[in-house]
Amino acid sequence: MAEHKHGEMDITVQTKTFNGFVKATTWCVVAIAFLCLFLAVFAA
C-alpha cells in the first residue's frame, strides 16, 4: 500500500466544484432575497 503524503494530491477538480457550488449558492440567495423584497413591496 502506498504511503500517504500530505499535500500531494491534485485537488483542482474538487476546488472548481466547490467554487461553483459557492457561486451558485450565492446567486440563489441573492435571487431569493430579491424575490422576497419584490413580494413584500408589490403584494396584492
UniProtKB/TrEMBL annotation:
<dbReference type="Pfam" id="PF07835">
    <property type="entry name" value="COX4_pro_2"/>
</dbReference>
<protein>
    <submittedName>
        <fullName>Aa3 type cytochrome c oxidase subunit IV</fullName>
    </submittedName>
</protein>
<feature type="transmembrane region" description="Helical">
    <location>
        <begin position="21"/>
        <end position="43"/>
    </location>
</feature>
<keyword id="KW-0472">Membrane</keyword>
<dbReference type="InterPro" id="IPR036596">
    <property type="entry name" value="Cyt-C_aa3_sf"/>
</dbReference>
<keyword id="KW-0812">Transmembrane</keyword>
<dbReference type="InterPro" id="IPR012422">
    <property type="entry name" value="Cyt_c_oxidase_su4_bac-aa3"/>
</dbReference>
<keyword id="KW-1133">Transmembrane helix</keyword>
<feature type="domain" description="Cytochrome c oxidase subunit IV bacterial aa3 type">
    <location>
        <begin position="4"/>
        <end position="42"/>
    </location>
</feature>
